[in-house]
Amino acid sequence: MEETVKKKVMLSGIQPSGDLTLGSYLGAIKNWKERAEEFDCYYFMADLHSITVRQVPADLRRRTMEQLAQYIACGLDPEKNTLFVQSHVPAHTQLGWVLDCFTMFGELSRMTQFKDKSQKNAENINAGLFTYPALMAADILLYQPDYVPVGGDQKQHVELCRDVAERFNGVYGDVFKIPEPYIPKVGARIMSLTTPTSKMSKSDHDQNGCVYLMEKPEDIARKFKKAVTDSDTERCVRYAPEEKPGVANLMSIYSACTGKTFDEIEREFDGLGYGAFKPAVGEAVIETLRPIREEAQRLMKDKAYLESVYRDGAQKAERIANRTLRKVYKKVGFVARF
Ligand code: TRP
User: What pLDDT score was predicted for residue 138?
Assistant: First the structure.
């Protein structure tokens, strides 16, 4: 019987704090759909995390729905993956509090994302922004996953999660499975088109550096034509991430969209220079994103369907999450209500 072999578990979240980007697609979501057969997968819209930075309520609500539509359009089949909204499963905040009490001030102070974000939001360095990694640890540990696929920037948070889990297990016995971060190699870090030394980010202030999943083809084409390459005289398409980070980034994008290797790309554009290369990357991206955009637009009009997906997802997620939470509550000494 199939059911007797327990699949390994994977879990990841994305904050609905900005529109999904080409970076999140190539670096993360694209790799998610192939895994549904092999793993038991949980993906959620991390809306609780989003409010560590002030949000316009209507926008947060709309983006959460759009993100769900976009996940599905990217190929995440809701029949094969558990898709849900983080705030629909109260166990996240409940375990989050317990783990706050097992996470050290010093550890949280060392998180580079906290340091970055508090610099960028100097007027709103709130406690949530600071304790966010403990909530993220709760997100993860509730589902006892084997792997947590994340971008490179989240590795430090997953490592903290492991430390917190080990600390808890050290006191109470084996309550949590210790998860491994799972960082895809190709496309793990798609960089900004205008500042290729920093990650393509939905919260980037430079709109030309970032391509959105739902963006119009003509805008995508324009952004790639303007993409930063380098100023050397060679003007040749060659993979040298240290010397030519802009070109390397465009090559990674082209490779992820077409499946071609860096060698093949170098040969394809041999003698052609950047004038031919940049629009070709733009075209490849446009064709990769076109079916996703069209499907997401169709799904956004089908509210009843999206509601049924997140309702079923939350129900399934809650069953697993509550099992872990009950165990934790018992271990720490809370009186059981039932
Ligand atoms: N912190 C992640 C980000 O900013 C999102 C996230 C929240 C997450 N909880 C998670 C990712 C749990 C993986 C697992 O991108």
Answer: 98
Which residue's alpha carbon is at the smallest distance from atom 11 of ligand 1? 13
Buried b (16+ CB within 10 A) or exposed e, 242-266: eebbbbbbbbbbbbbbbebebeebe
For residue 262, give the H/E element and its range. helix 262-268
Q: Is 199 in the pocket of ligand 1 (CB under 6 A)?
A: no
Catalytic residue, from 199, 223, 244, 278: name it.
199
Distance from Cα 7 to the centre of ligand 1, integer Å: 22
DSSP-derived letter for residue 331 is H
Q: Where are the alpha helices (DSSP H) in 74-120?
A: 91-100, 105-109, 112-120
Low-confidence ranges of the chain (pLDDT < 50): 1, 187
- CA geometry: angle 72, 73, 75, nearest 5 deg: 70
- The verdict on the CB of residue 15 being under 6 Å from ligand 1 is yes
Instruction: Determine if ligand 1 sits within 6 Å of the CB of residue 160.
Output: no
Is residue 117 flagged as an active site residue? Answer: yes
202 belongs to the catalytic site: yes
Residue 39, strand partner residues: 8
Q: What is the pLDDT of residues 3-43, one digit of tens each?
A: 557 899 999 998 887 678 898 888 778 877 788 889 999 99
Three-class DSSP category at 226: coil
Residue 301 known to be catalytic: no
Domains of the chain: 8-183+302-332 (3.40.50.620), 207-297 (1.10.240.10)
- Amino acid of residue 246: G
Structure tokens at 47: 């809306």
Please give the pLDDT value at position 199: 85
Beta bridge partners of 14: 45
Spatial strand order of the sheet with 39-45 comes to: 81-85, 39-45, 8-14, 147-149, 180-182
Q: What is the pLDDT of residue 185?
A: 63
